[in-house]
């Protein structure tokens, strides 16, 4: 019997997987239950899933995952309250009954108030429904720009507020709503990818530092960590060290390590060599994470196994991208062995 990830990492941090309903049916469920002690809903807790039409909340798919987690002694990490993607169209339009119903919102005070009321209703419904059954939420996701000079992502949220103030509003509203139902321990995270990129990292850091200075209730930083074999582990580490200085909680929220699909005409041994290289990469990455266990609440892989990786469904198909510790056949890869047996 091979060691479980959760036992090996028990003294360090929780180990999570992003899942949907497919993953809680056998044989996937056996793999999930053996190795992981936390889940994130890959899609079922996003705004479009929770509130497809205004005021109409649909929790069934998300509940199935939370119920499963509780029945199996796992924690649930909430993803996500405010995002620019997978948010229903109505959210950025004038409501029914308004003279301009269905038209895009502008950026007047009235329009901003509509956005804030919607945020309050949405966060309030999540708080009411889940209370403290979900220990942390990504309150905002991906608000930092990929253009480091621009700093803030110029999303519809940003446009309507003509700046980043909506981020602070989101944390204050979420805190109020969770506190109102007695869920005062629920932790509020800001989540982003590319936090290992020093320029983007510093922009995120400055935003979080400013919010803390202003008394905005932000508890944690989520490092998505969609990386590849070319990503510097030193950069991943420097980011954790930098945020440690702010005294915030940290989690790795969406880890995967892309190795590229087998190239046209590439011989099998070359591809196998990349899988081995990936094993060494996971080994070194987790050795670093474990050194920073005091800083990390949890490390989550974005998909239970390679066959469930989002990288396989990008518009440009990458059918054999294999970024995770377990293979399509649910076998333990070199990446898994790198985590549990770093002596290899
Ligand atoms: O549910 C519909 C289905 O009804 C429809 O027939 C089908 C046809 O394309 O699409 C289904 O929706 C898909 C959805 O996943 C659920 O499977 C969307 O097209 C697809 O775009 C969506 O992809 C998700 C992606 O976020 C969308 O932004 C991925 O599964 C999910 O892994 C990915 O996760 C994100 C994190 O939330 C944030 N960080 C980056 C990460 C990777 O992109």
From TrEMBL:
Class of enzymatic activity (EC top level): hydrolase
Keywords: Carbohydrate metabolism, Glycosidase, Hydrolase, Membrane, Polysaccharide degradation, Signal, Transmembrane, Transmembrane helix
Domain of life: Bacteria
EC number: 3.2.1.8
GO molecular function: carbohydrate binding; endo-1,4-beta-xylanase activity
Keyword Membrane: yes
GO biological process, one term: polysaccharide catabolic process
Protein name as annotated: Beta-xylanase
Species the sequence originates in: Glycomyces buryatensis
Lineage: Bacteria, Bacillati, Actinomycetota, Actinomycetes, Glycomycetales
């Amino acid at each position: 019997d091979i060691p479980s990830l959760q036992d090996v990492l028990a003294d360090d941090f929780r180990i999570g997987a992003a899942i949907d309903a497919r993953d809680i049916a056998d044989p996937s469920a056996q793999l999930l239950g053996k190795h992981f002690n936390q889940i994130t809903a890959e899609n079922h807790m996003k705004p479009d899933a929770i509130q497809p039409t205004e005021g109409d909340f649909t929790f069934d798919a998300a509940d199935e995952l939370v119920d499963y987690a509780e029945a199996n002694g796992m924690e649930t990490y909430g993803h996500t309250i405010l995002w620019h993607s997978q948010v229903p169209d109505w959210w950025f339009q004038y409501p029914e009954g308004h003279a301009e119903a269905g038209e895009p919102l502008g950026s007047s005070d009235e329009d901003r108030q509509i956005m804030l009321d919607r945020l309050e209703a949405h966060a309030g419904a999540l708080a009411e429904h889940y209370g403290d059954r979900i220990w942390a939420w990504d309150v905002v996701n991906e608000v930092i720009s990929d253009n480091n000079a621009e700093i803030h992502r110029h999303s519809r949220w940003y446009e309507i507020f003509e700046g980043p103030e909506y981020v602070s509003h989101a944390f204050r509203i979420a805190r109020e709503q969770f506190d109102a139902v007695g869920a005062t321990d629920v932790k509020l995270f800001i989540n982003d990818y590319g936090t290992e990129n020093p320029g983007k990292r510093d922009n995120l850091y400055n935003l979080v530092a400013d919010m803390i200075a202003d008394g905005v209730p932000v508890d944690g930083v989520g490092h998505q960590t969609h990386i590849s074999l070319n990503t510097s582990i030193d950069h991943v580490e420097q980011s954790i060290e930098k945020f440690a200085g702010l005294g915030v909680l940290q989690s790795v929220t969406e880890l995967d390590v892309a190795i590229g699909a087998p190239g046209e005409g590439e011989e099998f041994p070359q591809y196998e060599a990349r899988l081995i290289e990936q094993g060494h990469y996971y080994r070194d990455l987790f050795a670093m994470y474990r050194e920073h266990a005091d800083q990390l609440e949890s490390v989550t892989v974005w998909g239970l196994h390679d066959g469930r990786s989002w990288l396989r469904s990008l518009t440009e198909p990458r059918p054999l991208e294999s970024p995770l510790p377990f293979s399509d056949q649910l076998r333990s890869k070199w990446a898994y062995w790198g985590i549990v047996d770093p002596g290899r």
